[in-house]
Amino acid sequence: DAGVIQSPRHEVTEMGQEVTLRCKPISGHDYLFWYRQTMMRGLELLIYFNNNVPIDDSGMPEDRFSAKMPNASFSTLKIQPSEPRDSAVYFCASSLIQGQETQYFGPGTRLLVL
Amino acid sequence: AQKITQTQPGMFVQEKEAVTLDCTYDTSDPSYGLFWYKQPSSGEMIFLIYQGSYDQQNATEGRYSLNFQKARKSANLVISASQLGDSAMYFCAFFNDYKLSFGAGTTVTVRA
Lengths: 114, 112
What we know:
The complex is a heterodimer of chains A (about 110) and B (about 110). Chain A is mainly beta and about 110 residues long. Helices cover about 0% and strands about 55% of the residues of chain A. In chain A, the strands form 2 sheets. In chain A, strands 2, 4, 5, 6, 9, 10 and 11 form a 7-stranded mixed beta sheet that branches. Chain A has a 4-stranded antiparallel beta sheet with strand order 1-3-8-7, with no helix packed on it. Chain A is globular, with a radius of gyration of 13 Å. Chain B has about 110 residues and is mainly β. Chain B is about 0% helix and about 55% strand. Chain B contains no helices and 12 strands. In chain B, the strands form 3 sheets. In chain B, strands 2, 5, 6, 10, 11 and 12 form a 6-stranded mixed beta sheet that branches. In chain B, strand 7 and strand 8 form a beta hairpin. Chain B is globular. Chains A and B meet through strand 5, strand 9 and strand 10 of A and strand 5, strand 6 and strand 11 of B.
């Protein structure tokens, strides 16, 4: 079975540009999570969805960040406009149910904003 | 917010020996979960083991075992018979209130 798929794996962009990160969760998983990993702040939860509906976006750093899940097999995280401090690894994860269910992570997208 | 602490930024272990990675947490909730993930240099996050707060026995998965001491609020990971491929960053994560909170991580380097 395919795991969580993320694209692109690497992204280099210039400050001010729009960045879109994509995620395909494991088929049948009802929950989808977006995380950001930096040296300074470690792994942080940005937002999570249940059945395509955003449940908690309290971790989204500011209005420049937005996330959507138009269907059960696709989600995007958009940064507009991007800034150098957004440089990080962005992970998508999915789980079958909430509660104590294991979250399975995608390979991550390494974003560098120049 | 839940607090999860990994006090060991880095550790060295000899191949074939066991290593214990510390993890403590702070919560007043009775129901929660504790996870350990491995992040090798390639960057992916790999699930290793899970312990529920109501589980009576310590979790084990192959060479991984979790030393869960609920009263002390600790959930240490034990890796037995270390292999060179175990060299990686290891994260403890606390699950509660629908959220997973990660510790700062411990880097393990296995020496031949």
